[in-house]
Amino acid sequence: xxxxxxxxxxxxxxxxxxxxxxxxxxxxxxxxxxxxxxxxxxxxxxxxxxxxxxxxxxxxxxxxxxxxxxxxxxxxxxxxxxxxxxxxxxxxxxxxxxxxxxxxxxxxxxxxxxxxxxxxxxxxxxxxxxxxxxxxxxxxxxxxxxxxxxxxxxxxxxxxxxxxxxxxxxxxxxxxxxxxxxxxxxxxxxxxxxxxxxxxxxxxxxxxxxxxxxxxxxxxxxxxxxxxxxxxxxxxxxxxxxxxxxxxxxxxxxxxxxxxxxxxxxxxxxxxxxxxxxxxxxxxxxxxxxxxxxxxxxxxxxxxxxxxxxxxxxxxxxxxxxxxxxxxxxxxxxxxxxxxxxxxxxxxxxxxxxxxxxxxxxxxxxxxxxxxxxxxxxxxxxxxxxxxxxxxxxxxxxxxxxxxxxxxxxxxxxxxxxxxxxxxxxxxxxxxxxxxxxxxxxxxxxxxxxxxxxxxxxxxxxxxxxxxxxxxxxxxxxxxxxxxxxxxxxxxxxxx
Length: 496
What we know:
This protein has 496 residues and is mainly alpha-helical. The protein has helices at 14-48, 52-80, 82-102, 106-134, 140-165, 170-179, 182-193, 199-204, 208-218, 222-235, 258-264, 268-286, 289-303, 308-332, 338-364, 371-390, 392-402, 409-438, 440-461, 473-476. Helix 2 (52-80) runs parallel beside helix 4.
């Protein structure tokens, strides 16, 4: 049955916007933890006298633990709801931050990093899913990009924290950098409880009256709310004309049987959706963004920046660039579309990475500082960050949170996020070893090659989802050709 399209809302719904903003605060905390660690590692290495291998493990262990968290988060969010999953993520972040801020030795630091990592897995899976499920089709790109924008804001705050706390005593500065994240984690626990539950989760639980109330709050007109309500009931297997306050859903709603539908016996459309979601999450980090975000100071040092304050300032520039272009992207997603932004973004990344590889190779083989190579390296780094964050960065989270069918959404997204964290961990924990083996310029030439493969994958496998309701995604992925059947700006159905 074809699902009716939603009307274009006259304006962004304020209640849906506020709910998505509060849910996205959890990713600010994650972004802060990622950004602050890039600078904190300089001071931790000096204070605790750890090796480069231990630095790599410290950097990457968060993502391995996040893999565990993301796999657990799908089933958890189906069982306890989207809001309480965010609360659990906040508690884990708070405990991890306290342990890292205490950090008397490397072992305790690792325990805190792992605890925060599990919280990362929960946060990265649930924040975009909650934002997608509470928004209408025409504002979903903007609202679902907020978690990624907040990650950028958090990373920038982490870099700024590095710069200011780095001026304090060695034993105190890095501990304050890491421990201060416990404060917003505690505040979020109370903030998210004031927000509504996802209407789609409520329908899966048979709580129709609760879902109806939330949809009225998050829609601009009663007609829009009713249309969304009918579509969600139909997708959940409930008669769309049912007016009962509570029903027993005809299909299990706490995650049972989902793994079989996703992995063992998936429908062709679900198989395509899973390939698309896993692929985009893999390429988000396989293209090298974590190497720049986490090891920015090392890259700039290789390019010729030697002063510690200047290294941290150059890294702040990365954070500013990331945040600025994420903000631009959030306004383009619902106008330009996911697919077009993704292809332009990846093409720009290929060029920037190739230039960065060239300039770093020249700088690395020179016996003195070459100002032109230094300038090109910094410009290419910022250009790479800009192209990544106007497309691939935010589109990854928007796209994967909106394409899975209702029953499979939480656990499908958890698989994709697990791949994301695993890829991130591999890059984080091997980058130093890779650039020592093939030179730092060679490492970025490698990332440029991976980005070229990513562009081909996106072109072939990812149809446009702009303007589609969540309930019709499976029908979109049932088409034989992603490119030929992708929705584009000339498709009049988008304006219905």
